[in-house]
Design brief:
heterodimer; A: 307 residues; alpha/beta; eight-stranded parallel barrel; 8 strands; B: alpha/beta; seven-stranded mixed sheet; four-stranded mixed sheet; 10 helices; 13 strands; globular; EC 4.3.3.6 (chain A); pyridoxal 5'-phosphate synthase (glutamine hydrolysing) activity (chain A)
Chain lengths: 307, 289
């Protein structure tokens, strides 16, 4: 179940910095909602009508990136612009890990959020983008508390689990959320002396770790992503403590996209009401076929990208 | 004579958006009221609940509609069987309702720049709201403003500036004349949607509908924080960012993104007054032949 995120953002010190309150604030407005991957204006409209709280504009959904292979880059700004002109909800777009010029281009385009994403082919084998100087807020993926807090110190105003994008298999998203939760619980049980060592072990800023331990949750909004394909998957991630859900290939790779999208939206609002979940799970048509994460070779796992 | 104030339940619409933040500020506001409030107010036993169903809404004496995506909220409300109960709450029962950002849009009788095909509004405020008035996220900003509707808290007086956070914010573009039915002139405007009309439930509710729209705060367009972030020409000299009409109160910004509960303190005071008026009215009503 989502734990309360104090309105001070947990780290008031960053508030003044490039309007951190404004950047982290938009993420709070997306909470309890579903952010859907869309590849054109028509899909964006379906997502908007389904009640998506935002859309992620990209040329290929992760399932296709996986199937087609090759280098996956930032989408054509023209295609993103068309989506921005079609819907009134916020529009996000992906940049490659470490590719700060793609981020500059997306900022010039005026997207509402940038996802520095492992779904695209990384552009830097060591560094992530320094996200503080941008006026556009960033969301980044994580597999554990160390990755999450490193991204927050780099300026991410929102975090999501990496999961395993484009598989329709929720197991990795669950693994990552449980890992973050258990890392936080470990930190909470520590004395401040132990926390210094833990911060070193995780490779994170001590003060940010201390703040996180105090809050008992990540200091920014945290969504589930990577493998969510059904209303039940979405509610599962919410009950594990996520603030909202990204659905990538799960919607438009399924039989009846509009119906499934609506059902997932209802499931995220009423994630604690099994009766509603039962009703919205009925008669959704075919779910995306999916790939069993267990069958993926280590080289095929996108979640391993990012450092 | 001692006035017995019943327990008061305030709900926050929890379909999507920043509802948890409002609940946190309500709790902090009620603590401030208990410590500093007038004797009558300190007697109130507040409960704050998240509202996702008609049953939960029925328990509420007052309601906050938080920031979030207004299109998502109105679609989910309709599919959760909450849209008509919400309209009854605001327009038939005329209970105190406060909307911030997306909430202001939903509480307006008229709105423009909505998604294709429009969106469902609850209504209650005779105003036209312009969605995403300041532009996209890159043009979001914060400004410290003097507000007239603040309560004192333990550590802050009502006179201090309030940090107003505007995120893809709407503003009130026009105050409309009150109509007993639907805002027909607005309805005939291009790309503008209106809320359906509902008759007030009783005499006390009727009284609320006769109230004029009060402009509670404006934002001068010369505000440096606004100017610094604007990428396009901003018309006019000021924007209306806070309005009240009878039982309905709307803000374009997000008090739920600050740790400052002074607006919540003030509004809870208004809610307890409304609950008391309702109580007095029902006592008189029952004793009438």
């Amino acid at each position: 179940m989502p734990t309360e995120l104090p309105t001070s953002n947990g780290h008031t010190a960053q508030d003044g910095e490039n309007n951190f309150a404004v950047k982290a604030g938009l993420a709070r407005m997306l909470k309890g909602g579903v952010i859907m991957d869309v590849v054109n204006a028509e899909q964006a409209r379906i997502a908007e009508e389904a009640g998506a709280s935002a859309v992620m504009a990209l040329e290929r959904v992760p399932a296709d990136i996986r199937a087609q292979g090759g280098v996956a880059r930032m989408s054509d700004p023209k295609m993103i612009k068309e989506i921005m002109e079609t819907v009134t909800i916020p529009v996000m777009a992906k940049a490659r890990i470490g590719h700060f010029v793609e981020c500059q281009i997306l900022e010039a385009l005026g997207v509402d959020y940038i996802d520095e994403s492992e779904v695209l082919t990384p552009a830097d084998a060591i560094h992530h983008v320094d996200k503080h100087p941008y006026k556009i807020p960033f969301v980044c993926g994580c597999r554990n508390l160390g990755e999450a807090l490193r991204r927050v110190s780099e300026g991410a105003a929102m975090i999501r689990t990496k999961g395993e994008a484009g598989t329709g298999d929720v197991i990795e998203a669950v693994r990552h959320m449980r890992q973050v939760n258990s890392d936080i619980q470990r930190a909470q049980a520590m004395s401040s002396t132990e926390l210094y060592t833990y911060a070193k072990e995780l490779g994170v800023d001590y003060n940010l770790l201390k703040e996180t331990a105090k809050l008992g949750r990540l200091p920014v909004v945290n969504f589930a992503a990577g493998g969510v394909a059904t209303p039940a998957d979405a509610a599962l991630m919410m009950q594990l403590g996520c603030d909202g859900v990204f659905v990538g290939s799960g919607i438009f790779k399924s039989g009846d996209a509009a119906k499934r999208a609506k059902a997932i939206v209802q499931a995220v609002t009423h994630y604690n009401d099994p009766k509603v979940l039962m009703e919205v799970s009925m008669d959704l048509g075919e779910a995306m076929v999916g790939i069993n994460c267990g069958d993926l070779g280590e080289k095929e796992k996108l979640a391993k990208r990012g450092w | 004579m001692t006035v017995v104030i019943p327990d008061v339940t305030v709900g926050v619409l929890a379909l999507q958006g920043a509802f948890s933040e409002h609940v946190q500020l309500l709790r902090s506001a009620s603590e401030s009221l208990a410590l500093k409030g007038a004797p009558a107010q300190s007697q109130v036993k507040w409960s704050f609940i998240e509202v996702r169903t008609p049953e939960e809404l029925a328990r509420c004496d007052g309601l906050i509609i938080p920031g979030g995506e207004s299109t998502a909220m109105s679609l989910v409300a309709a599919r959760s069987g909450l849209l008509e109960p919400l309209r009854d709450f605001v327009k038939v029962l005329r209970k105190p309702t406060w909307g911030t950002c997306a909430g202001l849009i939903l509480l307006a009788e008229s709105a423009n720049r909505t998604k294709k095909g429009g969106q469902d509004l609850i209504g209650g405020l005779d105003v036209r709201v312009n969605r995403n008035h300041f532009g996209r996220q890159v043009e979001s900003f914060q400004a410290n403003l003097q507000l007239s509707f603040l309560g004192d808290t333990v550590d802050k007086s009502a006179n201090e500036l309030y940090r107003c956070v505007f995120i893809r914010a709407p503003v009130v573009e026009k105050i409309l004349p009150h109509k007993d039915g639907v805002q027909t002139e607005e309805e005939s405007r291009e790309a503008t949607i209106v809320a359906p009309s509902k008759a007030p439930g009783d005499k006390l509710a009727e009284k609320e509908t006769t109230a004029a729209v009060e402009i509670m705060a404006t934002l001068p367009t010369q505000t440096p924080a606004l100017q610094a972030n604007q990428e396009h020409e901003h018309a006019g000299t000021e924007d209306i960012i806070a309005v009240r009409q009878g039982n309905v109160f709307g803000l374009s910004f997000h008090p739920e993104l600050t740790a400052d509960p002074r607006i919540h303190v003030w509004w809870l005071g208004e809610v307890s007054k409304a609950v008391e008026r309702r109580h007095q009215f029902e006592v008189v009503d029952r004793s009438a032949p």
